[in-house]
Amino acid sequence: MSRILVFLADGFEEIEGLTVVDLCRRAGIDTVTVSISDKASVVGSHGIELKTDMTLDAVDFSAANMIVLPGGMPGTRNLEGCEALMEQVDDYVSKGKKVSAICAAPSILGHRGHLKGRKACCYPGMEGELSGAEVSFDKVSVAGNIITSRGLGTAIPFALAIIESLTDKATADKIGQSVVY
Q: What is the pLDDT of residues 99-117, one digit of tens each?
């Protein structure tokens, strides 16, 4: 069974993070929410408090198949400011392991040089942060081991792309149909 780690920081966009968690769990993917702080709870950008499954210091990165970075502000800046997480993002990308980011979070990958020569998308107006990328305006861009998406309104196709990348298209289609997408 695949395992994904959904990293949450104070100020994350609730829908972007939780849509991935919900749909991936429906698909049978072991989906773990992780607080980047030493507290097991985070507060989203719209004041919704969420208890996470674990904190960053408890994560076994070797046991996971994908890192997921939701957007939102200041959540994206908080994720990017977490050096321990950024080291793991760099390691995953360098080893060809999967990393997914939505909304403002693809800017993190751009800043770290991971989008050079890859198709990528992000929240409208942040395209300049995708350093070296072939900027796309699709809802979701899949470029090898990196999946990017544009924002809250694309959270379902983003989650379905994650499911497809870890299982298969039939499973992603079945989950999409089950939620009337």
A: 999 999 999 999 999 999 9
